[in-house]
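Memo to structure team: turn this sequence into structure tokens by end of day. - J.P.
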Amino acid sequence: MIFKNLYRTIRSEPWPIQVIWAVLSFEFILALVEQQWPLAGVALFTFCLTLVPLYVSSRVGISFPTPLMVAVTAFIFATIFLGEAFDYYNRFWWWDILLHGGSALGFGLVGFMLVFMLFEGDRYAAPRWAMALIAFSFAVTIGACWEIFEYAMDQLFGTNMQKSGLDDTMGDLMVDVVGGSVGAFLGWLYMIGRGPGFTRGLFEDFVNRNRRFFKKFKRSK
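Reply from structure team:
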């Protein structure tokens, strides 16, 4: 039953996520054949971690836009598998900055979606700046939790996710603040009816997927 449900989940997901899962599965099997146990462990751990957002989404009954789910899966793949197993952090100096900045921006948008949902889509239920501040705080909190995760991985499994230690951690947090600020600002622009087309599409896709939570929602003119 477990494998049958897993197969259904894989078949129902967008093709970019399926490609990532296929790559991880191939690398896992290849690593087992070549007896590269650390690589096999990283591939399996990454695969399991990519299932967490889908599991949480299904458990809480909230459906997120496809681009966001693809982005989260790609972030986990790029951070854990490419970053650690293939040493992308050291091979490309901009890898860490790109991932942290992009993820913080994304979590800023997700934070705004969740805040907007709490007010059932009512644009006037709370000051817009307050909603943006909550979204920003959500993004930075996720970033801080990720730094704790990196520290735990380094201590427990001997990885090198923190690189230069304190300098790397503080640099990542600064990038998180910038990315979270941009995400929150885009949410604020949406609230006043001036957001870019792609953010407006994300927000309204989220609303359409979760209509029961947005009883007071009205599209801006």
